[in-house]
Amino acid sequence: MVEEQIIARGITHTPTLAALREVPRHRFVPAEHLQDAYDDNPLPIGHGQTISQPFIVAYMTVTADITPGSKVLEIGTGSGYQAAVLAAMGARVFTIEIIPALAQRAAATLRELGYEQVQVRTGDGHNGWPEEAPFDAIIVTAAPETLPPVLVAQLAEGGHMVIPVGPQGGGQQLTLVTRTAGKVHTRTLLPVRFVPFTRK
Predict the structure, then answer these.
(1) Which range of residues forms the domain containing residue 32?
(2) pTM attached to this predicted model
């Protein structure tokens, strides 16, 4: 997976590659899709949600500029795979999932694999995690139609947020948001297709 799907497409960031080699992706995939766990495709995980393709996980991780000790907010825990990759890189991860069954399953898997520095919360990710803000990085794995100002406000000085923005059915762009010298800057990166950012 790492050699053929990640490195071959230009990602060479050593800590990210090491984390992708460490985290057993098959542990985050439903049994009926185990044979496809390491393919470069998103896979269904139930409740209308997916686990992102490995390349997108790698790309978002590199773009978020994760370093050991980074305090990271993830919106959309899903299977827990992205959170595990972040934890494997030495980050402290605060991840929010709106669907209780997915949050419980992800928390159990992360616990079984020893990723104790990941905290999982069931709730509306639109509100972020204000009592733990600000965050060095924010990774959002579901697409709102516009940039959520509450999440932007929880980004630390010098921080990076990676988020897909745009309507369902086409036109989404993976977007990098940075805060530098108190100012917020945005840059579109590549076209993507993510599940919608749902609200309670």
Answers:
(1) 2-191
(2) 0.95
β-partners of residue 187 are 176
* pLDDT tens-digit series, residues 45-54: 999 899 999 9
Residue 197 is assigned to a structural domain of this protein? no
Q: Is 196 within a domain?
A: no
- How far apart CA 41 and CA 37 sit, in angstroms, is 9
Confidence of residue 182 (pLDDT cuts 50, 70, 90): confident
Which residue is associated with the tokens 């897909």?
164
70 is catalytic: no
In a domain, 161, yes or no: yes
Structural domain count, the chain: 1
| Angle, alpha carbons 47-161-37 (nearest 5°) | 40
Q: What is the CATH number of the domain that holds 157?
A: 3.40.50.150
Catalytic residue among 5, 16, 52, 77: 52
